[in-house]
Specification:
The chain is an all-beta fold. It has no helices and 17 strands.
Length: 281
Amino acid sequence: MGVPSISERRYVRVIPGAAEEPTSTLVLTSHTSHYVDIRILKPRNNGEPALPNEGGPMERLEWAFAGISHSTPPVPEPGKIKPSRSVWEHWVDSNSDNPKPDEGDMWTQPNGDVLEKGSSRDPQTGTLTEYEEMWADLPLERTGLDEGMVSVVLKLQDDARKAMGMVVRVGGWCQGLMKIGNEITLERWQWVSGKSGSLSKGTTTNVKGEGPIVVEGSLSKSTDSKAKQEDSDPTGDWKRVARLGVRFLPCAVTFNPDTAKEGTVVEAGDSSWTVIENYQW
């Protein structure tokens, strides 16, 4: 168990190459250490949106994976600075049907950012390479529907259909990833505060045992990647900022945590998702 976090990657360096950031990479990690990591390539051609938000092209997806992470605190040694160690189990992976966990040493920097050092297999070639990644935590935020901070997780597992998926919401961000066979669908949502207007009608889903639920939130688009630090504005709205794939993801269920009780089964399209975490603090 840990404090939920919103981590944005600042750069990646595949040793001995130079540091660069070719993607928009965001990782949401819940109280129970479930996470969704989505890495979307930045546009390469004029006229492309900063993030794809209409389902394609799938070539913009570098990598997306979800699962559970484990961290081991550093062992103190006199006169030595030791890093913590983190392992990410890939339960569902856009690039592999048999994903291996990756792990790295986490070095906290003077400004609070975290430098991750480790080795992983290239998703395209399978070659084991050393890497460095710099991560920065974005601030947690209350939304207009929250009494405090919120962390919500939904999980999909349907072995008969080879369907797996996870949705994680932390504060003012939500990400979802689903894989059915080799078909990928993913979304990223952000809460955006505003000074006028009202919450628009959102997505309707059916929740077993609870009847129909309408979740407040807009399906309109936004490319804003900055999290707000000020107190939440009840006239704000959830904005979908990225989407790849064609299937339905129940991200909107997390927007009102009072309806997303642990154990609740959510019918979304032709898939049944289960709420496995609803943590508020």
